[in-house]
Design goal:
This protein has 352 residues and is an alpha+beta fold. Helix content is 27%, strand content 23%.
């Protein structure tokens, strides 16, 4: 049991015995209980529906039958709660592990609470947690990076399952179904179960549709029939179905009718279930990838400038003699300005 606990991720759970009798070495946490609850729901759907039964009658040997009501108080509220179980011990007081099916999101919410002082606190506070989780539950789509060198062009097409594909889906499940012995042949021997599949064809969620009929007094044989059908769904997973049409068969309602198998016939409800799948159609966009030409970058090319020749003045008949300047011998300077008095002459023939 301890090895199994480690395998499914119960890191803080230890079993000191296999009976569940309270001893100091039996330890767990509310997180581990939530992980274990999720593991039970996903891996044993054929057993999980028992947790939603509000009443059970045990025909014990050597005594009168005992009828036991389910102690989970949230089953009796209109909250879509279908499990799990209550607990009590002197140390942690009252506890409850509950699970709610979120129909709008097609998902499930699990809440585990412990340490409640009274049964009323256990019911009220657990309901608050479930309601809070339901209201504040959101999903987000993460944008995918588009390729840089391709362009996707979408083409809208309509998809439907053909008759052979529908028959193959139903046959895959019915081939694993073993009808229980001792069923009353003169009674209604059919149950409807909605199954959700993942893209690989594995059954990830089951829901008994006609739950009221199964729980009706005197219909205990239908519970046995439903359990065998749920077991067949698990055994036959994964089913083979066209992956490109997954949105059409991701949820299928199967009608398990024992008389169909015994008589080799197909009941009205089975035909309706198949026709519902045949008439289902979706429009989808198929992306075609087109190669795009990456625009060429404009590059500036520097033109080579012509080499400029060094400027050389043309030689002319110029006067190479320096000018001769005559400056008066007398220079008068006053207090505020400098005044040069004299005469300047240039005896050169030309001035350039």
């Amino acid at each position: 049991m301890n090895d199994k606990a480690k395998e499914i991720g119960l890191n803080y759970t230890k079993f000191g015995n296999s009976t569940g009798i309270i001893i100091p070495t039996n330890t767990t946490t509310v997180k581990d209980v939530a992980i274990m609850s999720s593991y039970l729901i996903n891996n044993y759907p054929e057993l999980y529906y028992f947790f939603g039964e509000k009443q059970f009658t045990w025909n014990r040997t050597g005594g009168d039958p005992i009828t036991q009501d389910n102690r989970n108080p949230l089953l009796y509220k209109n909250m879509n709660v279908d499990g799990l179980r209550t607990s009590y011990n002197q140390t942690d007081r009252y506890g409850l592990a509950s699970s709610m099916y979120l129909k709008n999101n097609d998902d499930r919410l699990i809440v585990v609470g412990s340490g409640f002082k009274t049964k009323n606190d256990r019911s009220k506070e657990s309901a608050k947690l479930l309601t809070f989780g339901k209201i504040n539950y959101h999903t987000f789509k993460i944008a995918k990076k588009e390729p840089s060198q391709t362009q996707k062009v979408a083409e809208t097409v309509s998809l439907q399952l053909n008759k052979n594909e529908v028959d193959a889906i139903f046959s895959a499940v019915n081939s694993c179904w073993s009808i229980p012995l001792g069923l009353p042949y003169n009674q209604d021997l059919s149950v409807k179960i909605k199954v959700k599949f993942d893209p690989s064809g594995n059954a990830i969620r089951t829901e008994i549709i006609d739950f009221a009929k199964i729980n009706k007094k005197g219909n205990a044989y239908l519970k046995v029939l439903a359990e065998s059908a749920l077991r067949a769904i698990k055994l036959c997973s994964p089913i083979r179905a066209p992956k490109d049409k997954y949105d059409l068969w991701k949820e299928v309602v199967f009608n398990f009718d024992a008389k169909d198998v015994l008589n080799g016939t197909e009941s009205k409800d089975t035909k309706i279930a198949k026709n519902n799948l045949l008439n289902k159609a979706i429009e989808t966009q198929i992306a075609k990838t087109e190669t795009t030409t990456k625009p060429k970058k404009k590059v500036k090319v520097v033109k080579k400038e012509p080499k400029q020749e060094e400027f050389k003045p043309k030689k002319t008949n110029q006067d190479n003699e320096a000018p001769v300047i005559e400056i008066a011998e007398a220079i008068t300077v006053n207090d505020t300005t400098y005044i040069l008095e004299g005469r300047v002459t240039d005896k050169a023939d030309k001035i350039l």
